[in-house]
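Wed. Picked up where I left off yesterday with phosphoethanolamine N-methyltransferase. The coffee machine is broken again, so keeping this brief.
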Amino acid sequence: MQSFKEAFSRHLRHPSTGPVGWLVKHILVRTNRYLEKEAARLLGIQPHDRVLEVGFGPGLGLQYALEHIGGDGRGKVYRLEISPEMIHSATKRLHRHIASGKLHLTLGNVMNLPYPDNSMDRIFHVNCYYFWDDLDQGCKELNRVLSPGGAMITTMDYKTLKLSIKRDLNAYADKYDPYAYMKSLEQTGFTGVRMEHLKDGVKDFEAIFACKE
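Structure written out below (tokens, as returned):
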């Protein structure tokens, strides 16, 4: 059982192939869908926006962000993913948007974002900041690529997160404290940092907002 828990935790942090990877992927699809949808909605995406999703999962938020962008606007959606398997999965599902030039997928790490300064208008991520090697460095990079006047949001289910850690199913989520994350946001130049406890139908979740002046 302990070896399964370790493998499950490892795939949560860095999704890959194999039976445990398949299980984690399907659990993420089921549990993250509403969080991805709410993040895209709360971000207030406009048709001309350049939107970045920083991800550690199936990339469900890409579809919602693309719906807000639409097909006629100048906006584009970018996805940074640490897992080649998740890049492959998103590429198969959203190949039409990639071919149209509206969607760009990149393999990389939030510690060193492969985007120019001030190149994104909106940024969102779901259930991933607590896996970053260095919170301050990750937040510093996100602030660097966000344009002045831009906004960022992360959504999470804090209750479920704490339960997964208690059950030893999320051993690598060692920076899960949202207040530590919010402190890093403020220290690296974000303003208007706040957390709201919200509800999507019957599901409770948390959203952390930040912007760049």
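Quick read: The longest helix spans residues 19-42.
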